[in-house]
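go over this:
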Amino acid sequence: MKFANGAIGIANLNATMLRCGVTLNPEEFIRIISNTYHAIEAESYDDTHIEITQFAKPFFKEVLLQTLDIIPHSFSVLDLGCGTGYALQTLLEICPKSRLHQVMCSDLSSDMVVKAQQNLTAKNITTETFVGTVADLVMWTQPFDMVLTNSVLHHIADIESFLANIASLVKPGGVYVMGHEPSSRFMANPECRAAYERWQTLRTWRRRLWFIDPLFYKRVLSKWSGHSQPDILQKTSDKLLRTGVITKPLTPREVRMMVDIHAPCDLPGDFCLGLPGFDPLKLGSEYLPGFHTICWRSYNAWIAPAKWAKTANALNKKFSLDGGSFTAAWQRDRKPN
């Protein structure tokens, strides 16, 4: 299995698999963890990821709008790594459904594909579905005028192969829109990084000063009343134990970093597999040959109290290219006549 950060990711994964008694190959192990996690998350995804459904949505729409005049009036669209179908539902908010002559949803998780189909059927959209890898999908379908991913790339260990398959799924003259991915430019900016670390320090102290945190007492009451639930990271590890995939529990950080491979993580430990986000200026030139950039937008989507949200907005104005997340679009070059 190929990792974007090379030997470090391989060594970390091998050590965890050895400790937890895993007999699967690394690729299958990560796939099962990801599928298990997202199956648990499917029902509550749109409610729990407000950084996507609220903060990032205007930027996603802005980028989508700039692609709609480039592609044919009647176009085909693929939502790859569709999740609950959020990307397509957002597209339909700015594009008449009469323009879509073919719609496909694809995901590794059958639970997510079912949820997406239900959400789109409620909007009178007929969808084709595919459960499997992007490599399998390439062998099964024809290219599309538009390919969408939203919060997908950071889950992929081998981004080079993934984006090569994406490229083959886009028609000449078609577009690829990549929504809501972590930006490495944010952490590379000293002022942005310092502000983020101050915010994380505050969160850490709040956890340590649990006795003055009202949320702590709310959680205690919930536990006593029998209404508390383990979080998704814990549920994922527990299910893998029950099904015999692992013989010892995974740490929360291990689960998180095997799901969100290329995202910053503030959980305790040093386990990592991937990169600390991506540089949108480099992604196209390094991984999408034969494409050119249409546009990209950078933003901060912190779920934080008003003071820190104000700080995030100020940083975004000062460093417009260095937000913590980004959305981007590329067009595949047309074949010469």
